[in-house]
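Worked Example 4.2. Consider the chain below.
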Amino acid sequence: MDWGMKNRLNQLIPNGRCFFLPIDHGYFQGPTSCLEKPGETIKPILSYCDALFVTRGVLRAAVDAANTKPIILRVSGGTSMVGKDLANEGITTSVEEIIRLNASAVGVSVFIGSDYEHQTLMNLTKLVNECENYGIPVMAVTAVGKELEKRDARYLGLACRIAAELGARIVKTYWCENFDKVVCGCPVPVVIAGGPKCETEKEVFEFVYDGIQKGAIGINLGRNVWQCAQPQAMAAALRAIIHENCNVKKAQEIFNEVKKK
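Applying the procedure from the previous section yields the following structure tokens:
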């Protein structure tokens, strides 16, 4: 592995663990609740995360150029919630643009089992072929569109392994029961996606803690952080689970302490 690739991965994953903060939801959802003004949303919580997952449009318009957090650039899209199929994605950003925006990594969705499986897997492959030339890691996102029932260990294990086989350096996927089977079958680091907002903060702590115990290197959580009534407390507690090996009980204590401030 070249120095540039190693350096970028170490920026993204300090000491082998990571907390990625995604604010890319608008690329298919539009002005998502609590993310209408993304620059304002991230101000109180950015310091807790290790990298920001964002589209080029929001990066330019809403993220301070003095930001020192690494950027993971969302580079797939072309669909919306009101369209026929969320899986019908293409690559939206050139490698020249990725370099110009000083991204530390890029993220692309793959939709295994959909009508657009081949198309999205070829999107990933093309991106890997191009980005490897410049030492830029590619994160594959095992997306399921609106079909939430696909989130089981067998399906996610299949999706993660295929993404890794095609060259993804990191795979982002959903937590599920028997999550260890997903991680064990994937030869590259696995990061946990958040999905729809949970009912309580404890639910979030529980699935994140379980996922870390079963081999994930970190999280890529958005809605369960910035849609929380206490986003700063949530971010602090999650960082403690990831970087300080805190359990659910300790995370809840940290959440309550920060909430009081």
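Strands lie at 18-22, 51-54, 71-74, 76-77, 90-91, 105-110, 138-142, 170-174, 190-193, 218-220. The longest strand covers residues 105-110. Compare this with Example 4.1 before moving on.
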